[in-house]
Amino acid sequence: MIELIGSLIVLLGAVFLFSAGLGLLRMPDAFTRIQAGTKATTLGNMLVLIGLAFYHPGWTFKLVLVAYFVLMTNPISSHALSRAAYRIRTPMAASTVTDALADERENEAEEHS
Questions:
Q1: Among residues 11, 44, 97, 108, which one has the fewest Cβ atoms lying within 10 Å of its Cβ?
Q2: Domain range for residue 94?
């Protein structure tokens, strides 16, 4: 019974990882691709790690360390990628309504001139 629960959780994690791949293909610009990939892969990885903990209870401590690493690095790396893309003026999708960093960009331009 425990193996079945673990398998279902791993399968659910695989579904989220697959949706992350679809998000990378289907989203209109770099910013939404980064967001779709990060959120779905973080959740997918967590579910796979939880499923593995059901299969191998002795690995739980190691899996918690891996989960911590994923939870710390995925959001930070996606933020860094997004900021870098914004700074090199990667175009946003035409459907983007709000540029929350536009004021900051204008302030930086005024400071440098």
A1: 97
A2: 2-112
